[in-house]
Write a structure and sequence with these properties.
Layout: H1 9-15, H2 17-30, H3 39-47, H4 57-83, H5 89-101
Length: about 100
């Protein structure tokens, strides 16, 4: 998406400048501080977003944040590759928020 490195899963979801901007937004929004450089660490960090014992809908949304951002990054990457569209972090963020707001879409 950023055209600065080979697009590997690690680059796409963690080290790409677009991905880093999205993780920075999550840090501000829900204090999600991505301290890992691995995909497994990314998923684990996402699972740890909810508070222990919290079964509220807020906790479920929190645990859905990482998958929503990853899905939005994947779709943006596909759009770049197959449609040659430019990727803007704001649009990827909006897509992730849309997925959270419209489950099952």
């Amino acid at each position: 998406m950023c055209e600065s490195a080979e697009e590997t899963p690690k680059h796409l979801f963690i080290t790409c400048s677009v991905a880093r901007q999205l993780w920075a937004l999550l840090k501000v929004a829900v204090d999600f501080d991505l301290q890992t450089q691995s995909l497994n660490g990314l998923w684990e960090a996402g699972r740890n977003l909810k508070q222990t014992g919290d079964r509220s809908s807020r906790a479920k949304v929190s645990q859905s944040l990482v998958p929503a951002v990853v899905w939005a990054l994947w779709l943006a990457s596909n759009s770049k590759v197959f449609r040659n569209t430019r990727v803007y972090p704001e649009n990827v963020w909006d897509s992730a928020v849309f997925f959270l707001s419209n489950p099952g879409v």
